[in-house]
Amino acid sequence: MKPSFNPHVPLLARYLKPQWPRVSLLAVLILGQIGLQLLNPQIVRTFIDTAQAGGALAKLTGAALLFLAVAIAGQALSLAVTYLGQNVAWTATNGLRLDLTLHCLRLWFPGGKHKR
User: Fold this and answer.
1) Interatomic CA distance for residues 70 and 10, integer angstroms
2) What phi and psi, each to the nearest 5 degrees, are found at residue 109?
3) C-alpha torsion 102→16→18→85, nearest 10
4) Cβ neighbours, 10 Å, residue 47
5) 46: nearest Cα among 70, 30, 29
6) Helix runs in the chain, H state only
7) CA distance 67 to 61
8) How far apart are CA 64 and CA 76, in angstroms?
9) What's the rounded Cα separation, in Å, for the pair 78 and 50?
10) Buried b / exposed e along 23-37 (16+ C-beta atoms within 10 A)
11) pLDDT digits (tens, 9 = 90+) for 93-109
């Protein structure tokens, strides 16, 4: 049996739509993080190939510094993705909780009027 996500898409869209700028930024940050993760092994490959070929020390130093810069940038992006992802998730979850609470209160107090 193939699972279907179609019934859940409108529900997800309802709580993420008000946050579309943050969700878009999150998508861009995730793609950037993936790009940096793909770039780092290429830098290591260049470093190893240059070292085996007896390349210049300046080129090896440049590759090492580039590796460190990409690794630090990757960690910074990872931190930003974690923070923004949790912020989006908490905001959407709180909206869902609010709607659920209001729904339960309407069931408890018909007509939406309740006594204090």
Assistant:
1) 38
2) -115, 90
3) 110
4) 19
5) 70
6) 9-16, 20-52, 57-108
7) 10
8) 18
9) 30
10) eeebeebbeebeebe
11) 999 999 999 988 888 77
Judge whether 39 and 26 are in contact, CB under 8 Å: no
Taking the C-alpha atoms of residue 2 and residue 5, their distance in angstroms, rounded to an integer, is 10
How many CB atoms are closer than 10 A to CB 18?
12
Tokens of 66: 């580039």
Whole-number Å distance between alpha carbons of 14 and 34: 28
Q: What angle do CA 52, 58, 45 make, to 5 degrees?
A: 40
CA distance 15 to 13: 6
User: Over the stretch 19-75, which tens digit does the pLDDT of each residue have?
Assistant: 999 999 999 999 999 999 999 999 999 999 999 999 999 999 999 999 999 999 999
Q: Residue 81, by phi and psi: left (phi above 0), alpha (psi -120 to 50) or beta?
A: alpha
Return d(Cα 51, Cα 8) in angstroms, integer.
53
